[in-house]
Amino acid sequence: MEHRKIRGNGIDIHVAIQGPSDGPIVLLLHGFPELWYSWRHQITGLAARGYRAVAPDLRGYGDSDAPPEISFYTCFHIVGDLVAVISALTEEKVFVVGHDWGALIAWYLCLFRPDKVKALVNLSVPFSVRPTDPSVKPVDGMRMFYGDDYYVCRFQEEGEIEAEISEVGIERAVKKVLTYRTPGPLILPKDKSFWGSKDDSITLPCWLSEEDVAYYVTKFEERGFSGGVNFYRNFNRNNELLGPWVGCKIQVPTKFVTGDLDLVYYMPGVKEYIHGPKFKADVPLLEEPVVMEGVAHFINQEKPQEILQIIVDFISKF
């Protein structure tokens, strides 16, 4: 596996690359609180099948640059980074696979620059996050449904959640979030009860090792959490900026996969959107969505081989 920095869109972007130099590129986009490393199983699997897997640390994460200003983390900044990565590696269209925030950004990449994307596989986050009335503030809606302690609401205050994570410990925070399996809203009470007692151990599932956690912890100790949290701090701003794309459709062949224990699946209206006619209307080239039983949010790590096979089966059609 090769690690390199690509200069583009005003920052240095770290990418992990594996596979033949002439293989079709598969761009793998991670979520929160993750890194390129979240795709470790799919990277090797894709490379073994002749694809060139490219997994960046998104802006603000890992070994990529992390501008200090919150305003530098809009969807346009992040999509700009990805366009720079794609353009540095090829003049051809690429396959894109996204999870969590990576899925949200992948929708926007397809919306803004469909000329760069051959086909899309998105995990966890459907296109129910499509542009809406620019006067609507999504965070206000989340606050109305779930209250001030909903994690997205807690993330809005600059420095607050970073200080809390520092107090409970980065290792504990990473373990608690990556092992979260409650099919419902992630609530972070200000009394810090979500994190549990420091004296209580957190049992890891079979798909997440102590070595995996150690890698995440090392990178978040170096970089901090502000970059990743700043994505959430631009929810309202993104919706203001997306006015020109209200009503636009995703015109890219798409496969969507989620788990029936994924917290996103239980957000208001999401399940109905996935299984109703609106998803296909918004994404005309969408194949039948897949809902994996007994699988939670971090689906590409929990079911690495199954997700690899879904990716390969889909992109091999193009």
TrEMBL record:
Q: Give the transmembrane ranges.
A: none
Q: Where is the AB hydrolase-1 domain?
A: 24-129
Keyword annotations of the record: Hydrolase
> What InterPro entries does this protein's entry cite?
AB_hydrolase_1 (IPR000073), AB_hydrolase_fold (IPR029058), Epox_hydrolase-like (IPR000639)
**GO MF terms held by the record:** epoxide hydrolase activity
Q: Does the keyword Hydrolase apply?
A: yes
Which pathway does it take part in?
Secondary metabolite biosynthesis; terpenoid biosynthesis
Catalyses: an epoxide + H2O = an ethanediol; (24S)-24,25-epoxycucurbitadienol + H2O = (24R)-24,25-dihydroxycucurbitadienol
Reported EC number(s) for this entry are 3.3.2.10
Q: What is stated as this protein's family in its record?
A: Belongs to the AB hydrolase superfamily. Epoxide hydrolase family.
Functionally, this protein is described as follows: Epoxide hydrolase involved in the biosynthesis of cucurbitacin and mogroside tetracyclic triterpene natural products (e.g. siamenoside I and mogrosides IV, V and VI). Cucurbitacins have cytotoxic properties and exhibit deterrent taste as a defense barrier against herbivores. Mogrosides are nonsugar highly oxygenated compounds used as high-intensity zero-calorie sweeteners; they also possess pharmacological properties such as regulating immunity, lowering blood sugar and lipid levels, protecting the liver, and acting as antioxidants and antitumor agents.
Name by which UniProt lists this protein: soluble epoxide hydrolase
